[in-house]
Each structure stands twice: as structure tokens, then as C-alpha cells.
Write a structure and sequence with these properties.
The chain is built from four helices and six strands; from the N terminus they run H-E-E-E-E-H-H-H-E-E. By secondary structure, the chain is an alpha+beta fold. It has a three-stranded mixed sheet. Strand 2 and strand 3 form a beta hairpin. The structure holds zinc ion. Zinc ion binds next to loops.
Length: 104
């Protein structure tokens, strides 16, 4: 198993996820003993961050609904390119106030 490749490819939303609190780009972090992947604001607006798998599934579902021709059949490792093409920003609002998925 190519762990390094997996690690590089797993952050499919890196570069388009923004903090709704301060507007900064959020980074992908792996948290705690469970190695939970989260997208988090490095300024600390969003205590603990947003669980990456949940957010990625949400965006994938949106892509399938609105642009099925662009996402179906695309290998998971290439999803980041599709997401970057489709979305201007994914904005995370702290305190469970939701997520804005902003198309280009
Ligand atoms: Zn922030």
C-alpha cells in the first residue's frame, strides 16, 4: 500500500475550504490518537475543525447532483481537480451554523 501517495491525495478539498469566521483558507490536519482528518482554521476560529470525510462527502454529493458528467467515473484521487474546477469556495461556519458551497 502506498501510504505516501494516499496521504498526498486524500485532502480533496485543500485550497478551496475557507473559514467563515476570519475568511482564511483552512488547512488539512490529522488530529489525535484516532488520526481523524479535519479541515481547520489555523487561527483557531473553529475549535477542533470540521471532520474531513463528512465535508468531502457533502461536496461530492453536491457535485454528483449538479455536475454528474464531471464526477462520475473519475477516480477518487482525481476528485480534488474536479472540485477545484467546480467550486470557488467551501465556507465553513463555526458552531454548526452550516456550510456554504459556492460554485464558480
Ligand atoms: Zn478562522
Amino acid at each position: 500500500m502506498l501510504l505516501t501517495t494516499t496521504a498526498l491525495d486524500e485532502w480533496t478539498l485543500r485550497g478551496i475550504v475557507y473559514c467563515g469566521g476570519c475568511g482564511d483558507l483552512m488547512d488539512g490536519l490529522t488530529r489525535g490518537g484516532t488520526r481523524t482528518r479535519v479541515y481547520a482554521c489555523l487561527r483557531g476560529c473553529c475549535r477542533g475543525g470540521t471532520v474531513a470525510s463528512v465535508l468531502e462527502l457533502m461536496v461530492l454529493t453536491d457535485a454528483r447532483r449538479h455536475s454528474p458528467e464531471l464526477i462520475e467515473g473519475v477516480p477518487e484521487r482525481c476528485h480534488s481537480q474536479v472540485f477545484a474546477d467546480l467550486y470557488r469556495a467551501i465556507v465553513i461556519h463555526a458552531g454548526h451554523r452550516g456550510v456554504d458551497i459556492l460554485p464558480r
